[in-house]
Design brief:
It contains 8 helices and 9 strands. By secondary structure, it is of the alpha/beta class.
Length: 230
């Protein structure tokens, strides 16, 4: 499988604090990989390196795919824009879509994430946390990106809404044929979304494998993480 995202011997330090240490990750076309780990393990830094928001202190980061869609941890919706304007923001700003076409597409994207067309004209301030996540997901897939990145997609949600979001992510990534990377500390989310899980501890990958192989992992940190999450 050809690698779409590849990180080779990547290090990232902020001053004397080394956050990622000899980090190696290869993600194939159409593959869904979850980087799992506790807070402060280096997951968010890995995502920022892929996005180009940070540069590695050493090693190499290569992204070969086309446009990237992103679901931010807290939705990151623009308060001054309506829901449909948020969903279509990239299309209007960078692809010169007219408002009618952009709104029509936004309504279709809302349907994809299980929200009615009436939500399109609402301001983000009137949305619940779960609705904001869905709108953020609709925005992430609106331009049919080749790569989608998910930053803690279920943080702050109750277990039922978390299940809804996880199912939507799994369905939509498969439907688009997108390459996906998700960072999370939520084991249930990882199991639902991932083709492959990478376990990160203190900037190092300590285990990787299929979700079904987690229970059989011999690494002590992985076993402790799984036990604490169940």
């Amino acid at each position: 499988m050809a690698a779409i995202i590849e990180m080779k011997n990547v290090r990232k330090a902020f001053g004397k604090k080394e956050v990622l240490k000899d980090f190696n990750l290869s993600v194939g076309k159409g593959e869904s990989v979850v980087i799992l780990g506790a807070s402060g393990a280096g997951k968010s830094v890995a995502l920022k390196l892929i996005l180009g928001l940070e540069k590695p202190s050493g090693g190499e980061v290569t992204v070969k795919g086309g446009p990237i869609g992103m679901l931010f941890q807290n939705g990151a919706l623009f308060d001054s824009l309506s829901v449909w304007e948020n969903i279509s923001f990239e299309l209007i700003e960078n692809q010169s879509w007219d408002d009618a076409a952009a709104r029509s597409l936004a309504v279709r994207m809302l349907a994809e994430v299980g929200l009615p067309a009436s939500v399109a004209d609402m301001p983000p301030s009137e949305l619940s946390g779960g609705m904001k996540k869905r709108v953020g997901l609709a925005r992430a897939i609106a331009a049919e990106p080749e790569i989608i990145l998910f930053d803690e997609p279920t943080t702050g949600l109750d277990p039922i809404m978390s299940e809804v979001i996880n199912s939507l992510i799994a369905k939509l990534v498969k439907k688009l044929g997108a390459t996906a990377i998700t960072i999370t500390h939520d084991l249930n989310s990882a199991r639902q979304i991932a083709d492959r899980i990478v376990m990160l501890e203190n900037g190092n990958i300590v285990w990787h494998g299929k979700p079904s192989e987690l229970r059989e992992a011999r690494n002590s940190y992985v076993r402790k993480f799984v036990k604490a999450s169940e």
